[in-house]
Amino acid sequence: MSRKPDSDSAGNLKKLRTDIDKMDQEILALMNKRAGVAVQIGKLKADTGGEVFNPAREEEVFGNILKAHKGPLPEVTVKAIFRELMSGSRALQSVQRVAFLGPDYSYSHLAAIERFGQSAEYSQVGSIQAVFDEILRKHANYGVVPLENSTDGRIADTLDCFIRNPQVRICSEIRMRVHHHLLANCQPNDIRRVYSKAQALSQCRQWLSKNLPNASTHPVNSTADAARLVQTEPFAAAVASRQAGVRYGLKTLFACIEDYPENETRFAVIAMTDSGKTGHDKTALVFQVPHTPGSLADVLNACKSNKVNLTWIESFPYKEAKGEYVFFIDFEGHQDEPKVKKLIKTLEDICDEVKVLGSYPVSLATDE
């Protein structure tokens, strides 16, 4: 039998709810007032040829908000609220079309939503090269492509696309802690097949071997495709995102089955332009060195002498010349900073080829 609230408690509850209703109206009025100012900014940017999506400015907004935030709401909640405010404000200026490697509810899709919010127009395509093509053909304003994973390393298709499409720039990065979940509509002991993207299966190989030793693994095009397939196949499970499970009506049998809890994928936001300075930036470039002893060491020494801190280096086979390699690096600093300009000039002198892929704000990792 439930306890009947006394009159004082009922009165206090009513007052608190009235206070919330009043605050909701104030919040709504401020949100719309903010959107109106954003529209005015959009008109000024349109007059001067500015981009609707400004990664540098948006990172500054997030930084200011989180610095001022004292709780009790979690930071992830506050950031999500302001992400959608900015997404809706951008849409009032011009709806931004964002291409991603589909299908819906793939990790690339979730990363795109994390960066652009729900008010963007999303276009799913079937390959990483197709994302680049959407940018080059001006069918999309931005694209989201996976760049590297902390467990499995580089995404070869993306690096190859940057070599073959040097006009495309990186204007932002998205870092997501990727959590894989085992999804199915049968009992764990009944699972005979596990479907997922090859990289996701690789990132869960130890867990799957230990907990489902009698189940075979089957790579498919994406984690979302795996969830869609399992929806109609008995005795099968998918390794995918929780959102994919919700979309396709699958139960989460086991959550967070990735072998390494800090499993993270970094995505690049690509466009025909990169980002302005924030004071907390990275620059990415690709270079090819002469096939002589010490040529790569010369590049590393140039970074050291210019006091530029490398944050990533990756070698990649150069398909145009057998046995040759190109190198991808990113490092702290913006290409407009004097020491970075000096470094790039030095690299141009000692390398066979140098191509700056873009400068962009440093991103903090978020959970999917």
Please provide a written account of the structure.
With 368 residues, this protein is α/β, with parallel strands linked by helices. Among the domains are: 181-254, Periplasmic binding protein-like II (D-Maltodextrin-Binding Protein, domain 2, 3-Layer(aba) Sandwich); 277-360, ACT domain (Alpha-Beta Plaits). 42% of the residues lie in helices and 26% in strands. Strands 1, 2, 3, 4, 5, 11 and 16 form a seven-stranded mixed β-sheet that branches. The protein has a five-stranded mixed β-sheet with strand order 8-7-9-6-10. Helix 1 (7-48) packs across helix 3 (75-93), helix 2 (55-68) packs antiparallel against helix 3 and helix 11 (295-305) runs antiparallel to helix 12. The longest helix has 42 residues, at 7-48. The protein is globular, with a radius of gyration of 24 Å. The mean pLDDT is 92.
Structural topology:
Blueprint: H1 7-48, H2 55-68, H3 75-93, E1 97-101, H4 107-116, E2 121-125, H5 128-136, E3 142-149, E4 153-154, H6 156-164, E5 169-177, E6 181-184, E7 193-197, H7 198-203, H8 205-211, E8 216-220, H9 223-230, E9 236-240, H10 242-247, E10 251-254, E11 264-271, E12 281-288, H11 295-305, E13 310-317, E14 325-332, H12 338-350, E15 353-361, E16 366-367
Parallel strand pairs: 1-2, 1-3, 5-16, 7-8, 7-9
Antiparallel strand pairs: 3-4, 3-11, 5-11, 6-9, 6-10, 12-14, 12-15, 13-14
Helix pairs in contact: 1-3, 2-3, 11-12
